[in-house]
Amino acid sequence: MLRERLAELVSKASGGDLAAADVLAADCSLPALGLNSLAYLRLIDMVETEFGCDVDLDGGYLDTLDGLAGHIAAHTGEDGDGEHSGGQRR
From what superkingdom does this record's organism come (predicted)? Predict the structure, then answer.
């Protein structure tokens, strides 16, 4: 569920230019899909708000959906199924 939610956020950050299903199915980086710098700023803001974790603009994990999901999982206890290892969703 985490990857799916992130794909929805990527779609929203892109202003709908990227469909969540396309983001999930892609075998390339988010910039290769067409996510531009303004969309990245929107995405980071949404991720920080929804998941309550800091996202560094220079983080190499930002290039891919899986990298971003891994960063969030490591900092929030969220696993790939959308479950938390403790506490409530922020």
Answer: Bacteria
Taking alpha carbons only, the member of 39, 80, 77, 32 closest to residue 57 is 39
To which H or E segment does residue 90 belong? none
Rounded Cα distance between 76 and 34, Å, is 28
**42 secondary structure, DSSP code:** H
Own/partner long-range contacts of 34-40 (Cβ < 8 Å, ≥24 apart): 35/10, 39/10, 39/13, 39/14, 39/15, 40/13
Q: How far apart are CA 17 and CA 62, in angstroms?
A: 18
Per-domain boundaries in the chain = 2-75
Digit-coded pLDDT (tens) for 19-72: 999 999 999 999 999 999 999 999 999 999 999 988 887 778 889 999 999 999
